[in-house]
Design brief:
Layout: H1 5-25, H2 29-41, H3 43-49, H4 51-63, H5 68-93, H6 98-118, H7 126-147, H8 154-159, H9 165-189, H10 195-218, H11 224-246
Helix pairs in contact: 1-2, 1-10, 2-3, 2-11, 4-9, 4-10, 5-7, 5-9, 6-11
Length: 247
């Protein structure tokens, strides 16, 4: 990865757009940044670059809402397995060809977009939640460690629990924050998180926050439903392009 003005511009514009999306609909920063950066600079670099912007923006989402401790107490097993499995997966990722991992990321983005565009929703009872929490958490952690994507199947699982909107937003913030920490630890342990990439990730934080602030200001001017459709259609296109480029 060339550390030059063009790289700065690509990273800055990517996180500005990703922050804008998160500001408007409350989600999407890791998905947008990971998808765009993977298509431009490659998967390992994209995973490293999203660390700081993702951590800072999602930490705020995780702690604001007043239900942090309640959500951690009730869903701790899901969050724990989703975090711990990441380190194991980053070790596996070292022996898998990069093209396969990139294709897997593209497929996950396609799946995530399709689930939301089709309006499919999973539903779980409390009894089912007891055994499904470590299963969904482990799968989410493995896929995060391999591709850097936090959303499948973690977000559909959280949506299936019957949480109200505020709880769901905060729970996603907790998942994304812990997943970012787990990913950072895994990449660092496997020598994929260099000082140069950390520095560039820090630089990406500023346009991400700027985009979030601007997105929050224009949120009331846009139809969230239509914006979400455009967002998921764009994610679908990104996923298809990443798969096509990988194969």
């Amino acid at each position: 990865m060339t550390f030059d003005p063009v790289t700065y511009l690509i990273v800055g514009l990517t996180f500005l757009l990703a922050g804008l999306v998160k500001g408007v609909i409350g989600m999407g920063l890791p998905t947008v940044s990971l998808g765009l950066l993977t298509a431009v600079v490659g998967l390992p670099q994209a995973m490293a670059l999203l660390i700081i912007p993702s951590f800072v923006t999602n930490l705020w989402q995780a702690v604001v809402g007043g239900q942090l401790l309640k959500l951690l107490r009730k869903h701790w097993l899901f969050f724990l397995t989703a975090t711990l499995a990441i380190g194991f997966a980053t070790l596996i990722g070292r022996v898998i060809e990069l093209a396969y991992l990139s294709a897997l990321l593209g497929l996950l983005l396609v799946l995530y977009a399709a689930i939301n565009l089709l309006g499919y929703k999973l539903s779980l009872s409390e009894k089912q939640e007891r055994w499904s929490a470590p299963l969904f958490g482990s799968i989410n952690g493995v896929l995060t460690g391999l591709t850097g994507s936090f959303v499948v199947p973690g977000v559909p699982y959280l949506q299936a629990l019957g949480l109200d909107r505020n709880q769901l937003v905060q729970a996603m913030g907790i998942l994304f924050t812990l997943s970012t920490l787990g990913l950072a630890a895994g990449l660092w342990g496997n020598n994929r998180l260099t000082c140069d990439l950390v520095w560039l990730s820090l630089i990406g934080l500023f346009p991400a926050v700027l985009g979030m602030v601007f997105g929050q200001k224009i949120r009331h001017l846009l139809s969230e439903t239509q914006f979400r459709k455009v967002f998921f259609c764009s994610v679908l296109v990104m996923g298809v392009y990443i798969v096509w480029k990988a194969v």
